[in-house]
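Q: My labmate handed me this sequence with no annotations at all. I'd like to see what the chain might look like in three dimensions before we decide whether it's worth expressing. Could you predict it?
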Amino acid sequence: MTADRAWYVLLFCAYAALNTSAMAAIKTAVAGFDVRKGAARFGWLGLGGALYLAALAVLLVLLKLDAASTVFPIAIGCTVLATNIVGFRIYGERLTAHKVGGTLLVLAGIVLTFMGAG
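A: Here is what I predict for the chain of 118 residues:
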């Protein structure tokens, strides 16, 4: 893999990590939201918003490097994979046969799209 290709892969990983972290922060903010404890939740919302902005910045770099029809499927697929990992490992969500099958299909889609990329 060339250095340019490695950088490209790293950007997709960064996008997925930032996007998934933003979702986790917002999930934490809205979990059991209580108006009396609202101030503490706004910090999590702010963090989630900042992480989403960082993810958007990475996405803009990716869109400058390649076509939207390549970038979006890979970026969204990577986010699906990262979200499944976080859901399973951090939130204790169940891993079902359907989730495994769907995740493998997403992974195959990422690989096929990446192979045809720029």
